[in-house]
Amino acid sequence: GNSVTQMEGPVTLSEEAFLTINCTYTATGYPSLFWYVQYPGEGLQLLLKATKADDKGSNKGFEATYRKETTSFHLEKGSVQVSDSAVYFCALSDPASGGSYIPTFGRGTSLIVHP
Amino acid sequence: DGGITQSPKYLFRKEGQNVTLSCEQNLNHDAMYWYRQDPGQGLRLIYYSQIVNDFQKGDIAEGYSVSREKKESFPLTVTSAQKNPTAFYLCASSTRQRSVYEQYFGPGTRLTVT
């Protein structure tokens, strides 16, 4: 079956530090990969996505590259802000599985950014 | 603006009562989903529906029920059989764009049962 593994949090950083949140996956087919962000008390929002190998998704200064050879989709940001404090979820959607419309989510990684 | 609406934001119930959480979308999406989120936990799928009048159980359907009579609406009932119903409930919808299913989430309903 499909699975997504994220690094455990919380990740605690000072403002302007570099961020990496690791995400690796296993999938039956050739999945699309996503990062979602959840701010406190809210629903999830799509942050970025990539649909094929070597694609780079980017949004709001965040980036992630689809690495098929290492089955990874690590999230990075060069300089975090206090407003980036949230929980980040890595997810995949696998067209090879019968229910490709049902994504597989990681457990989420909490990011805390201090001023 | 298109989006997903969940109401209410906060809901309080006494133990033994059934409660229905509302989810409405105006995105014209075919698929809709209900997830449960507990503190420090990821998302767990309760029910999902790909088309009107059809839905399937997810990983933790016991104690919950749903209906899908309209494309726009997917209400979730938390029954008295659900042993630990206090949680944050998220509704989502998706549609296929170039073979990619991308989910859109509502703001969530926080249910507290005492």
Overview of this structure, please?
- The complex is a heterodimer of chains A (115) and B (114).
- With 115 residues, chain A is mainly β.
- Helix content of chain A is 0%, strand content 49%.
- Chain A has no helices and 12 strands.
- Chain A has strands at 3-6, 11-14, 19-21, 23-26, 32-38, 44-50, 56-59, 62-65, 75-77, 86-93, 104-105, 109-114.
- The N and C termini of chain A lie far apart (41 Å).
- In chain B, the strands form 2 sheets. In chain B, strands 2, 4, 5, 6, 9, 10 and 11 form a 7-stranded mixed beta sheet that branches. A 4-stranded antiparallel beta sheet of chain B has the order 1-3-8-7, with no helix packed on it.
- Chain B has strands at residues 4-7, 10-13, 19-25, 31-37, 43-51, 54-57, 64-66, 76-78, 87-97, 100-105, 109-113.
- With 114 residues, chain B is mainly β.
- The chains are: A mainly beta (115), B mainly beta (114).
- Chain A binds chain B through residues 32, 34, 36, 41-46, 49, 51, 89, 91, 93, 95, 100-103, 105-108, and chain B through 4, 6, 31, 33, 41-43, 45, 48, 50, 58, 90, 92, 94, 96, 98-108, 110.
- Specify which chain pair forms the largest interface: A-B, 23 and 27 residues
Radius of gyration of chain B: 14 Å
Class computed from helices, strands and strand pairing of chain B: mainly beta
Helix proportion of residues of chain B, in percent? under 10%
Low-confidence stretches of chain A: none
**Total E-strand runs of chain A:** 12
